[in-house]
């Protein structure tokens, strides 16, 4: 329930869409009553892209690699994950070390947009930040994202901004509809020290929400 409450509060701060016509309360019932944008509700085909540091090992559960490898908070380490890391990386390897190899070397957003267009997609959604906390955009001016974003390490470029620009200049094939661009943004971060601290305090403290979630909002 604590995580759900954090998500509700942060989502409400982000719900300043132009089609909003009513005030929303910090409850699931209120959030569930929000209407979907017409273009999304009527779209027949869209593309969802999961891309991040987890794309480097690209092993088994992909974007959940870090969580499964470390056994979550209490679970045992999955042997196949530990074996994979031991056989492919140096001793004392840390998940953060993958970020240096997340270079997006063949990244060509304009080509991606053309492929989406030819495929007939009506919307494209990119993961801007998954539960690992790595930001795929230029977040250098945000608190607690130093050296864990696509501008400071890895690609050294704004992946979100690149694709947004390419997609917004493209219309979907066979229709006159604009190819809509959206983002998936995870508010939760598995191993963020602030969240771990709040959890150890039985959530009597709310430093993750105050200093990370609300700062983003």
TrEMBL record:
Function: Alpha-L-fucosidase is responsible for hydrolyzing the alpha-1,6-linked fucose joined to the reducing-end N-acetylglucosamine of the carbohydrate moieties of glycoproteins.
EC number assigned by the record: 3.2.1.51
Species this protein is from: Seminavis robusta
Main EC class the enzyme belongs to: hydrolase
Signal peptide: 1-23
Origin superkingdom: Eukaryota
Lineage, highest ranks first: Eukaryota, Sar, Stramenopiles, Ochrophyta, Bacillariophyta
InterPro entries on file: FUC_metazoa-typ, GH, Glyco_hydro_29, Glyco_hydro_29_N
Domain Glycoside hydrolase family 29 N-terminal, first and last residues per copy: 13-209
Record-stated family: Belongs to the glycosyl hydrolase 29 family.
SMART domains the UniProt entry points to: Alpha_L_fucos
One GO cellular component, as annotated: lysosome
Protein name: alpha-L-fucosidase
Gene Ontology MF term list: alpha-L-fucosidase activity
